[in-house]
Amino acid sequence: MFKKILKSYDYSIIAVYILLCLFGLVMVYSSSMVRAVQYYEWPADIFYQKQKMNLIFGFIVFLAFAIFPYKAYRNKTFLIIMTGMAVLGLFAVSVIGHTTNNAQSWINVGARKIQPSEFVKLSVIIYLSAVYANKQRYIDNFNKGVFPPIFFLLFVCFLIKIEPDNGTAFITLLIGISIILCSGMSFKSISKLIAICITIGLIFSPFIVMKFDKIFTEGNKGRIVGYLDPFGTYQNEGNQLVNSYLAIGSGGIKGLGLGQSVQKLGYLPEPHTDFIMAIIAEELGVFGVAIVLLGISFLVLRGIYIGIRSRDPFGSMLAIGIASMIGIQSFINLGGVSGLIPITGVTLPFISYGGSSILVLSIAMGILTNVSMFKNYEEKYGNRNNQPQETLRPVQSTIQPKYNIRN
């Protein structure tokens, strides 16, 4: 049986995950060494060494979650503890949080900083997947099946928003929406939910306009101004985006060469975190950008494929939620770097420097690998115990994955 389990693992996911992390480690060193010396007066390899330790610990955690059965996360006691810790972490940030880049999003733990909102994204995926999997028999009942999990989603998004961390709050909300759309609700129920959201949005839109100055900080408004007119505000709000353009344009097809970036020499702020893709484009050109995009795209599409093929609704929503988290965060980061959307301060998955981000992504990839293993094992060897499989009710919505149904 052990050999069958080993054969059921999707080693392509593991390989791409490791390659992206190693590629990111190289680029963190290249993009951060000048800033470490000039800005912080630290050793040139300080961020590289920290990220290396983050990756080592992250890989150990990945292996643990890849082995541990994902179905245990559906336990009610576990869900209560997990959601309780997520909420307490966000409350702790508001009390003892450390402020960086105008956002009070980190908690100092010794020499390390932890960002609770990163872990909340994964908590939302597990919680919504488990709750909606348990509510399949009455998934279209708004009072019992639809609204209770949505209240939790909106509550944690609100707590992240007031840090303020609009980028992470928006990502968390979109992740929740992606799971809701794939939860098994009928097209009629989804349409009704969308209509309710639009109505609420129209009701509160005048309030948002009137209280715009209080809802959005000066930093948020500055990012919007810089996005709308980067060259006109080059000396202030648009500086970061213009330097990103210069980095991307300088790289061209072949790039300037590894370590040869000009923009990292004090021109582009945060070159090893938010804007690491601009440095990759400048140093490695289209080839370097393609490596990152192809790797991330593979993991996203693979996650969606696993979700569609999984016979377990909980595993299906977990896989789709994890794929959505990676895809949405990547789009928002790349959109900000390229000027497609306003800058949000969101890091690029697997590539940017960050301990909390790498740890959460490693846990997520471990869970996805475990879901894939169970799916492959059932497809290859069947349910040897002849136990009935829990299934999702037939769904009319075209966005809903097609689940196999067994009695």
Short description:
It comes from Lederbergia wuyishanensis. With 407 residues, this protein is mostly helical. The chain has helices at 2-8, 11-38, 46-67, 76-96, 116-134, 142-161, 166-181, 187-210, 212-215, 218-228, 239-251, 276-309, 313-338, 355-381; strands at 98-100, 103-109, 112-114.
Characteristic terms for this protein:
407 residues; mainly alpha; three-stranded antiparallel sheet; 14 helices; 3% strand; disordered C terminus
Q: What does this entry look like structurally?
A:
Strand 1 (98-100) and strand 2 form a beta hairpin. This protein is mainly alpha-helical. The chain has helices at 2-8, 11-38, 46-67, 76-96, 116-134, 142-161, 166-181, 187-210, 212-215, 218-228, 239-251, 276-309, 313-338, 355-381, and strands at residues 98-100, 103-109, 112-114. Residues 384-389 and 391-407 have low confidence and may be disordered. The radius of gyration is 22 Å and the shape is globular. Helix 5 runs parallel beside helix 7. Strands 1-2-3 form a three-stranded antiparallel sheet, with helices on one face. The longest helix has 34 residues, at 276-309. The chain is 67% helix and 3% strand. It has one domain (2-185, 217-381).
Question: Helices, strands, pairings?
Answer:
Elements (H helix, E strand, L loop, with lengths): L1 H7 L2 H28 L7 H22 L8 H21 L1 E3 L2 E7 L2 E3 L1 H19 L7 H20 L4 H16 L5 H24 L1 H4 L2 H11 L10 H13 L24 H34 L3 H26 L16 H27 L26
Helix pairs in contact: 1-14, 2-3, 2-12, 3-14, 4-5, 5-6, 5-7, 5-13, 5-14, 6-7, 7-13, 11-12, 12-13, 13-14
Total strands: 3
The ordered string of helix (H) and strand (E) elements is HHHHEEEHHHHHHHHHH
Give the domain tally.
Answer: 1
| Assembly type | single chain
Average pLDDT for all residues: 85
Largest sheet: 3 strands, antiparallel
End-to-end distance, in Å? 26 Å
Radius of gyration: 22 Å
Question: Low-confidence segments, ≥5 residues, pLDDT <50?
Answer: 384-389, 391-407
Structural class by helix and strand composition: mainly alpha
Subcellular location: Membrane
Membrane topology: Multi-pass membrane protein
Transmembrane segments: 12-33, 53-70, 77-96, 116-133, 145-162, 168-186, 193-212, 275-301, 313-332, 352-374
EC number: 2.4.99.28
